[in-house]
Write a structure and sequence with these properties.
Layout (H helix, E strand, L loop, with lengths): L1 H11 L11 E3 L2 E2 H26 L5 H21 L19 H23 L8 H18 L6 H4 L7 H23 L10
Antiparallel strand pairs: 1-2
Helix pairs in contact: 1-2, 1-3, 2-5, 3-4, 4-7, 5-7
Length: 200
């Protein structure tokens, strides 16, 4: 969660307003975006390692169960929103900086809200809904897509340039949105019984 704050500050700091010019480290990859990419990778990997260590050493706690998904969603959703408009991130010094499609962002965030609501209903009935394989696939695709956007479609753009109708990174974003939609639908269908009122 601390990393989320650091990433947000780095992405939204008014560099241009203060006359700070951010160079590209290579190709069309902005220095700030490059640093944020590695912070994002570290945060994502730390989440993976954290969960494995907790299970291995029997350190699973209610606090961890509560905070872990919140931290995950803060990390992913904050970047999804920030990357909607590259000009919003004053660090973006290149007009070719990629943005994430609005519809894809709405689908991914809406899916999380629906699933979280379903989990809340389940919790009130003393039922724990575990993540399924589709949810895990969604998470992996989201993180890969966000990383690719931060790197501005590098290294794929080296093959076909930056002036193409659609690129690999955009395809990854759409796949992440599709996986989010499918996993959300599957989650609701599999647990639709939780939404039914029990007759007295």
């Amino acid at each position: 969660m601390i990393m989320v704050g650091v990433i947000a500050i780095m992405m939204l700091f008014p560099y241009q307003a203060l006359g700070i010019i951010i160079p590209n480290v290579f190709a069309e990859v902005n220095l700030v975006y490059f640093i944020v990419f590695w912070l994002f990778v570290i945060a994502a990997l730390s989440d993976l390692v954290d969960g494995q260590l907790a299970r291995k050493y029997n350190l699973v706690t209610n606090y961890g169960k509560f905070m872990d998904p919140i931290a995950d969603k803060m990390l992913v959703n904050s970047l999804l929103i920030i990357l909607l408009v590259p000009s919003m991130t004053a660090a973006a010094s290149t007009p070719k900086q990629m943005a994430i499609n609005l519809i894809a962002v709405v689908i991914m965030i809406a899916r999380d809200l629906v699933v979280d609501g379903l989990r809340l209903i389940a919790a009130n009935q003393k039922i724990v809904l575990a993540a399924n394989i589709f949810g895990k696939l969604k998470t992996v695709l989201q993180m890969v897509a966000i990383g690719a956007v931060l790197l501005n479609d590098w290294p794929f753009a080296l093959i076909y340039g930056y002036d193409v109708a659609i690129n690999v990174t955009e395809i990854l974003v759409y796949l992440a949105a599709l996986a989010s939609l499918l996993s959300g639908v599957i989650y609701v269908v599999q647990n639709r019984h939780l939404l039914k009122e029990h007759q007295q």
